[in-house]
Specification:
By secondary structure, this protein is an alpha+beta fold. It has one domain: Phosphorylase Kinase, domain 1 (2-Layer Sandwich), CATH 3.30.200.20. The chain has helices at about 10-20, 65-75, 110-115, 120-125, 130-134; strands spanning about 25-30, 40-45, 50-55, 85-90, 100-105. The chain has a five-stranded antiparallel sheet.
Length: about 130
């Protein structure tokens, strides 16, 4: 377990899945995802095959998820394909985990994507705001 990962009880994960996919949904699989440095990022899979990504922080109120939710909504408004947000919780005394639950999207990281490009394609791509919004 890396320093930013936290153990989350199966009961807590089941409750998050029930809130998202309905009380009949059964959590089948939980897989850690690489990438986050502040939170624990998990792939949740139900028995009927529904997948979601859960970004969760331990035992504290974390308002950064509200910011991330707003940023994703703004990106969607300008046409950038972003995952659908299923649920957001900022944490409370009664429910101490803060989290963001979103659509699972198959993909590759930027390094893998660039390695699939020719040298000309790889060096000619210059990410700017114009590339993202037009």
């Amino acid at each position: 377990m890396t320093p930013h990962e936290v153990e989350v009880s199966w009961q807590q994960l089941r409750q998050i899945v029930h809130d998202w996919a309905g009380s009949a949904a059964e959590l089948d699989e939980v897989t850690p995802l690489c990438g986050g440095a502040i939170n624990t990022t998990l792939c949740l899979v139900t028995k009927c095959g529904q997948k979601s990504v859960l970004k969760i922080t331990p035992h504290r109120v974390d308002r950064s998820y509200a910011d991330e939710l707003l940023q994703l909504e703004l990106l969607r408004e300008v046409g950038v394909p972003v995952p659908e947000i299923y649920h957001h919780h900022g944490g409370s005394l009664e429910q101490p985990f803060s989290f963001l639950l979103m659509e699972f999207v198959e993909g590759v990281d930027l390094g893998a994507a660039k390695s699939r490009c020719s040298p000309e394609e790889s060096t000619s791509f210059k990410p700017t705001w114009r590339n993202w919004c037009c």
